[in-house]
């Protein structure tokens, strides 16, 4: 039996594929390579280049492989871009998922692990955020991810397709073996942008606002290592294989770091002064986002192994230092 990973050439997808392979799973990857990288995909996985919105392509993948379950990453994931181009997000994210679940229903595949996001919550009423918190997404990105979760809920009821939705907080870090890591064009995430300074690719880091109601005035986020996220997908798969019912889990470390704290840790890791300058707030940034991950730890028995942000930044730095141009494609 085979696990189909959509978006398996992307950042979190490729780390999950590596982890699946290392645990002896048979893996098929589907990716249109719009944001993913062919060389990020483990050579032990069978690779199909194509788009999940293409029903005949997807049917061929399901027909040629004995798919037991799907891990679904393929989606657009930039909050800002989703606000300026919502139709792209409804098309790629929602229609893509509609097409995928249609193929699953048609081929009798009834398990899916889904890559969701803290952006489904919007500005939280309280932190840490629990899964029962209200969902009020503030961008088409968060809105389409929430709509995808709702689509799974109805398809569970109607067709018995069981799902686990994993709502990630701030994914970061790279594989400890240094072979795969984060490579987005353009890059918008804090840690890789900070590391561009010691790489000589930018002069300084801009801090988006220092007048938030936090101790040092900068935004607080919950940074979680990509290998811990990968591990959670395998546990979610085991949970579905054991016949459990559909559910939603937050994935974060439960600890928050401010932008200034992250920059300071990056200075320690790289030994570079990393100049920083305060710039205006970025639209739509909540002051504090911290996950309660107690449910994933209890129910999935998830135990994040990278609970030190300095170590997390070290794994990212090892990757970027050795691959200053990312995958170079
Ligand atoms: N930041 C800066 N300067 C930069 C880049 C980021 O100060 O050059 C700040 C942001 O304002 C924010 C923090 O660093 O306060 C983290 O920003 P990221 O862009 O790395 O991450 P976000 O918290 O904005 O986004 C993450 C995920 C999204 C998800 C979102 C909401 O990457 O997929 O959380 O939950 F939608």
Can you lay out the helices and strands and say which pair or pack?
Blueprint: E1 2-6, H1 11-22, E2 26-31, E3 46-49, H2 55-64, E4 67-72, H3 79-84, H4 86-106, E5 111-117, H5 140-159, E6 162-168, E7 170-172, H6 190-195, E8 205-208, E9 220-221, E10 223-225, H7 226-241, E11 247-251, E12 257-258, H8 259-270, E13 276-279, H9 294-299, H10 309-322
Parallel strand pairs: 1-2, 1-4, 2-3, 4-5, 5-6, 6-11, 7-10, 8-13
Antiparallel strand pairs: 9-12
Helix pairs in contact: 1-7, 2-4, 4-5, 8-10
Uridine-5'-diphosphate-4-deoxy-4-fluoro-alpha-D-galactose is lined by residues 77, 79, 117-119, 141, 170, 188-190, 193, 205-208, 219, 221, 259, 282, 285, 289.
Multimerization status: single chain
Strand-residue proportion: 15-25%
Helix share bin: 25-40%
Count of individual beta strands: 13
Provide the list of bound ligands, each named once: uridine-5'-diphosphate-4-deoxy-4-fluoro-alpha-D-galactose
Structural class, judged by helices and strands? alpha/beta
Keywords for this entry:
single chain; 329 residues; alpha/beta; Rossmann fold; UDP-galactose 4-epimerase, domain 1; seven-stranded parallel β-sheet; 10 helices; 18% strand; globular; binds uridine-5'-diphosphate-4-deoxy-4-fluoro-alpha-D-galactose; Epimerase_deHydtase; UDP_G4E
